[in-house]
Design goal:
- The chain is of the alpha/beta class.
- It has one domain.
- It is built from five helices and five strands.
- The protein has a five-stranded parallel β-sheet with strand order 2-1-4-3-5.
- Helix 4 runs antiparallel to helix 5.
- The two termini are about 35 Å apart.
């Protein structure tokens, strides 16, 4: 069992304890769709955070950490046609504002707990003016009881992105492959019996590294 305050050998790539590291399961999945992850600063040290798996698995992912940006282009550091992008966020009536998901060039996703995601949403009013992609997952989150979600249809960042990619016309194998890695992470955390108070990663002392993916089967 991993206990807080005890020195644990960690992976140099993902910073997770080696007992729960999933770098050995990473597979690279090329996509046509681009993805921008706006991550709440407090989420970057979460042991169960799933954004890192997406960054390692999807070549067209851009991870941006912060709280506020003037626009999508400001967050990305480039000019972008916002009309061809959509943000993943639930509508009150559960309906998606995107008519042709397959025509999108990219997706924006907010990464953090539900309360942190709402903070990002309200601090960036330009998000509310974007096309909105609303999902209806058929299964509850892979997190299970390890990280409770406020509603059954609310799932992890990785699960949301995986489903959105399929909805936008990417290969269903990408969704299945991402789920396999995420299930492995969740199971390894369970097997290691990591207490809630110890589910924090050590602070970075150098830029993040991306694990070398194995070849797609």
């Amino acid at each position: 069992m991993l206990r807080p305050g005890v020195v644990i050998e960690s992976c140099e790539i993902c910073r997770r304890p080696k007992a729960v590291c999933v770098c050995d399961r990473i597979v690279s999945y090329p996509t046509s769709l681009r993805l921008v992850i706006l991550q709440h600063p407090q989420e970057q040290d979460a042991l169960l955070g799933s954004a890192q798996i997406l960054v390692a698995s999807l070549p067209k992912v851009q991870l941006v950490i912060g709280l506020s940006w003037r626009s999508l282009g400001h967050a990305m550091g480039e000019d972008v046609d916002v009309s061809k992008w959509a943000v993943l966020f639930p509508e009150r009536d559960g309906r998606s504002g995107v008519r042709e998901a397959s025509a999108l060039e990219g997706i924006v996703v907010l990464d953090g707990t539900w309360s942190k995601a709402k903070t990002l949403w309200w601090r960036n009013p330009w998000l509310n003016r974007m096309n909105r992609l609303t999902l209806k997952p058929k299964q509850p989150s892979i997190y299970g009881k390890l990280r409770a979600e406020p509603k059954r249809e609310y799932v992890s960042t990785l699960e949301s992105v995986a489903l959105a990619l399929t909805l936008c016309g990417e290969s269903p194998e990408i969704e299945a492959g991402l789920h396999r890695v995420f299930r492995t992470l969740v199971q390894r955390v369970r097997d290691a019996d990591v207490p809630k108070e110890a589910r924090k990663l050590p602070r970075r002392t150098r830029p993040p590294r991306v694990p070398k993916p194995v070849k797609e089967p």
